[in-house]
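Submission sheet (multi-component)
Chains listed below:
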Amino acid sequence: GAVVSQHPSWVICKSGTSVKIECRSLDFQATTMFWYRQFPKQSLMLMATSNEGSKATYEQGVEKDKFLINHASLTLSTLTVTSAHPEDSSFYICRVPGQGDEQYFGPGTRLTVT
Amino acid sequence: DAKTTQPTSMDCAEGRAANLPCNHSTISGNEYVYWYRQIHSQGPQYIIHGLKNNETNEMASLIITEDRKSSTLILPHATLRDTAVYYCIVRVSGGNQGGKLIFGQGTELSVKP
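Outcome: structure written.
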């Protein structure tokens, strides 16, 4: 069964609105989760590391005030795309470290901003 | 983490073996080779990983050259459902929650009937 879930699986929003994406770890407690985004025909790009109990760390070029990350509990991290614009339309994927060296990815959230 | 180089795309006939190469000439002694795949519009899926010995599991085999500068992922009997983008990633195993896990461009494998 699924180890990581994301909600919603897809969302369409109007330009200027904010969208929240949830990533839940179903089998493991995770002090760290990772957020990626993927544009069409491109590879996954790491956006940020979500840390439970502390601030997220962002990769170079990713605006922390635009992509708000909250690691609310050991099983939940949320990514909020604030004031979304069409260029934010992308496939957002989270990753949860498992036991040992396993890495589990969520099924992804397709965001379309009109 | 060491950089990897993979062909952009490959075709394979259904039922035949798919051999996906990966070059990682700058790999360090403590870095493992990992393979993931991503089926269209889904999250990546772990396939296999290894350090220097060949590895096999229910999904695939991983052949690593003796000098560890390249490796090959083998899908022994490719099916249409194996059509996906395959990513070869080199990184140190364990520690730091798996680290940043940086993806390259991968190889788009098309399995054809």
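Remark: The beta strands of chain B are 9-13, 18-23, 31-38, 45-50, 55-56, 61-64, 70-75, 84-92, 107-112.
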